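tool=predict chain=A
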Amino acid sequence: MNTSASNTPAPHSAPFRNIGVVGSGAMGRGIAQLFAQSGYDVHLYDSNPTALAAALSGIGETFTMLVDKGRLKAAEGEAARARLHAVDGLPGLAGCDLIVEAIVERLDAKRELFTALEALVADDAVLATNTSSLSVTSIAAACRRPQRVAGYHFFNPVPLMKVVEVVHGMRTAAGVVERLVALTRSTGHLPVVAQDTPGFIVNHAGRGYGTEALKALGEGAADVPTIDLILREQVSFDGKGFRLGPFELLDLTGLDVSQPVMESIYRQFYDEPRFRPSVIAAQRLAAGLTGRKAGAGFYLHEDGRQEVPPQAPAPKVATLPPVWVAPGPRADLVSAAVAALGGTVQDTQRPGDEALVLVSPLGLDASATAASAGLPAERVMAIDTLFPIAPGQCRRRVLMPTPATRADYRDAAHALFASDGAGVSVLRDSPGFIAQRVLAMIVSIGTEIAQRRIASPADIDTAVRIGLGYPLGPLAMGDALGTSTVLTILANMHALTGDPRYRPGAWLRRRAQLGLSLLHED
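tool=predict ok
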């Protein structure tokens, strides 16, 4: 375990002196450890005495482990342990100037707890909820002094996940938010401030990755392993990509956790199409295929290991046909890649009778691209150029045929683009390939969070990059891909499918039109 938390007593100027934590599960335990290690006196309560004792023992063992590994001095470990106090009832928290609630995710339970705490603590004490999915405003509405209530959302494991969402409810006092921000910084974590909206920043922004992958799966564009491979291996921002594919991630978190969040955020935003869940996930949840903990999810899991079917080898082709590359802004890089891989590029206005025809659409499918240009659909293959495709610059290339494409031309394209050892995934015809549509939706939702002023652009990117482990925040991701590119993908998908989930938002459109960064505030 690594932590940057301070190990000295909280200074006289600290925003809080005595911190109470209610709930000793994984989140409450982590929050208590972080504050005790950062120099604050922490009073931990749980209605289950056995759970409380286990939490105290576990935190003590963690301090011992950190000392043994040289990450804490022995005196620091003892001092942190001495700052941690168990209380046997809510009245034991009466002297706390901050109480952080980390109990079950039920609105009635949280409101009942906050009402009880208000009868015990001073009028200027702050009550914070670690909720990840409930409305802070609704929790505060049960309180006599709702201005003292704020969201304070940590991520698991708390000592390692260095970002904290400080959530401003409708009636939260500005000073309360400022004190929680200062407290967070004193622990070495990064605070991001969000307005009280469904999912706050991180769970809101996270709707793009898994939800759009499920949409592509539901359309039959590719199977589960292929989609995961593409998003792990094709996506690369300065060498950084997604550590887990979307279905690997869903298996790790568990559909019993993820699916209710997907449905809740969709409903809380009054059926906003961008967040529309998938019937596939709902059916798998009903079947008990929740992921690793069940031994089966989108993958089978044996002894904690994910079982993935082997990839089929690239086809062998005796003679490659000449290649004709359709005109367009990305034609030169496709031609250069073909030539570098040993293919013969036809430099003619129209494809020859035997030529393999390559197109490189953004947000469109191969069929629409071929039909609009009057190309021979039986010889057309589309290639995704969202990321580099030249030899030595990519781990995976992605192709897709039209429904009319002949098998020999499909195999020829596959063999050509696999000839340098890079992986090749061949999709069924679909708008936006896989990477285009998923990344465009991540960017789109991030820009909508900015447009709604839920959080600052910088805080959006910080929260998502750290909280979700993405290679870049959604706004920086859009800048790296090119704002006009993302706008084109979304506009073309919207026009082709008629689905309002793909409609480009104002924040993206205006910045693309003006050549501004998506991080540019107005």
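Residues 123 and 130 are 21 Å apart (CA to CA). The chain has a mean pLDDT of 96.
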